[in-house]
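The aim of this short unit is practical: by the end, you should be able to scan a pair of folded records and say something sensible about each. We start with the first protein, listed as its amino acid sequence and then its structure tokens.
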Amino acid sequence: MKPGEIAFKCNFATMEEETGVVTARRCDRNFEREGPILCEYLDETVLPSFPKNRVRVKYATEHRCGLVVEGPGLCDRISSTDPLKDNLKLLVAEPLDETEEAAYTAKVVNEVSDTIRKMLGTHPVNQERESVGKNPANCVLLRGCGELLDVEPFESRHGFKACMVAPTKVIAGIGASLGIEVVSAPGATGDYHTNLTPKMDTIVDALSWGATGESGDQGEAGSRMGFLHVKAVDDASHDGNVDLKRDLIAAVDVMVGQLVKRLWEKERESNGALKYYICCTGDHSTPVEFLKDHSHEPVPFVSAKVSDILELSGEESLSKCVPTESVKLPYAITEEYRQKCLDSLVRRTPTRGDSVSSFSEVAAARGILGRFPGSQIIPFISALFE
């Protein structure tokens, strides 16, 4: 983005033309084939009433895309067109203040919404979808209008470099805006079909690059913190799929085991130059059974030194419990695997930290960190380097 442009996080959705009711805010999660086709079709759209403003569209994941409006006179002080719930009418963008820029931007954005809807209504992709009984992607919901922010880079603020693996574009966009290096991982799609193990491998490689193995110094481009984001669990919550969410959490648990094992291997290979910590948490709660949307409950947070994990579990236990094959979704945990882990599990009394032995909201509430705001996470991580 450039200064003066506005951007939206968008959904391809299904709307009843006669009533204006959005019947499905997510037309289809399995939209990897059609999504790029429609985004290319909508890209560079010219607005009849606003010829100086132009629309850019880029596919993200599943039913999602990003949309940018360029041209003069724009600001981010307008409301969204997304009703946020199924079976509600498509909204009209409204100015959020009394400035000329806000009033003008609302008019432009409403024409964007109308123009795109007319273009999608006759597209062959939607004709094909309707012919086989699928929801047409005949509407794009525009939400979260934003401008390019002039923010202090992450490294300048916190004193160390960071990298991230985040196929979900809105997460990657936040990182890029802060000057955090966004690293691509093969097979990482940010949806129900992602491959978790390459994401883990990529973040480990990024955090070990530049280590000398002798002095402990890192190369000029070395990152001291890596952020690995997994989106699919949240998707299952939005879809109200309890069984899938359970299985996805189990798959992530296996990936975390692979992460611990690989980081421990890197520690040993570095001859003491590298020391790793792991922090696991969630960016929000999404109750799967009753709300199926983001909520405001506290999320669990855990931090551990990799060498301490090995001290508690033992290398033999880690070796038996961590599979070598890629954790590619959908991934099923077999009963044989569960039993093997239980048989090899070593339970030692921790000599540091607290006695919490499971990762959940209830268990974490008993931990020594207590309850704290998300703004304290990076200072907490920074303290680990001292």
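Turning to the second protein, read its sequence before its tokens, just as you did above.
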Amino acid sequence: TGDEEIGDMELGGKLHAIHPSAYRAIKSSAVRWTRRVGARRSSRSLAKGSESNADVRKVLGLEEDAKLTAVELSAGFCNQVMLVKRIAYDGGEEALVVKLYSNLALLRTEQRQRGVVDKKLSDLNMGSQLIASTDEGIAHRYLEGRILTEEDMHTRADICAATARLVAKFHLLEVPPQFDDATSPLLWKWLNRMLDEMRVSSNVGSLPAGIELPVLRREVEIMANTVEKMGFSVVLSHGDLKPSNVMLLGDDPVDDDVRLIDLDVRLIDLELAGPNYRGFDLAKLFRIDPSRFSEERFSEFLSVYCETAKVDESLAKEIEKETKVCLPLVHLEATVFFALVVAMGQDFGGPSSDKARWEALLRDRWAKYMASKATIDVFRDVM
């Protein structure tokens, strides 16, 4: 998971194609656990030191004697991310970002689908340039820039508009054929796989009272049955479109009057990309404490989004409803994620020293889910 504080912590591992000084490195224990998805597989921990360098070489297809340096950017539950410098073909030094997959990342993805969307966006200049993709991980060219923040989306009209154009263009792309059903949202598969993993964990009894596995499974079933009847649009989605998974390349200040300046923004951390609800992407992008939510920025975003997608702006109201209905799903996914982390426990190599923190995150996301789930009832009868 990320390195934010409890109130702002996001799902997923931190993949930032930025300099290590741009954010705090995550200090978490490696995942060591055995999972059952189809056939039983042995676990792979997040490697350290020379073992990590060996994995990096394998991703890049380098010989053991090839010269490179690797600095760890982050090590969370989802991935280990390394800033790697190697000798390029012209003799100069080349900077890359290499992500090594952990079992928790592999749990929610299929082998044939990994790297497919990265390649598509690399070719379209909508993401970072893809260098290599293997079963062990993925490598991109290093990008100079910074990741977006929640505040950017609610205070910067220029960034909000540029992101709207990028996301609209992304959502217009065809779902790659490696995904069997382009109309079936991946969200429900992720949730059920994580719940199934909890079920076989000997530590599942450690979940807090009121957030036990049967309770979580029931909520997932209720949400699935309710949302699927609403007929939401399923598009090629990012899957974890929090602001920190959007890179801004260069950030020259602009006057408030220049709202539609075409800033260079790119999507990163695409391992969960595939068919999913359009509103789920947008709910993650604009999720923030209600007191800081900007209806003005959100409306401007939807206006530019519709203009870029070449759809009537009257559709903005429908997209707004989809987004607000999907907010509880964002919190439910986070709840199930942190419940799995807690259920992994010490026996599975989980972060026993961080148990209180992970449980606090679980309770926080559960409370947000329970507080927001009534949103679905508000919109259900008008959609």
